[in-house]
Sequence to fold (137 residues):
Amino acid sequence: MKAEEPGGGSRIASLAEKFDSLRNEKEELEKKIEVIKTDLNGVETELVKEMEFHEMERYPWSGGTFSRVSNFSAKIVDKVGLFDWLKNNTQDFDGLATIHVRTLAAYVKGRIEEGKDTPEGVDVSTYETLRYTRNRK
Fold:
């Protein structure tokens, strides 16, 4: 059906044009959001470093409160080594074919908190991020 034909053709053409325009606008905004996210991550990293340097866990500010949050990550770097270690050192994961990353992280974190060794084949790291709570208006 051509856009000039009766039965809604011109309406369809108008909606198609509107759709295309909105889609283009959305794509441009998404590009801007990616730039803002990159800038925000950079400022967050700097803010964490400054708070660490000044030994601050919290920073109350007129707009809200910034709090440092410690995060824990466990990454499998040697799957065969990890599963061999789990098979030989624990019954918790006996016969397991896979292990969810969060389950592994919780397991490894628990071992560290208990003063035990980390499993073979796992790379452990900690990092800090910020929690920002805005003041209510």
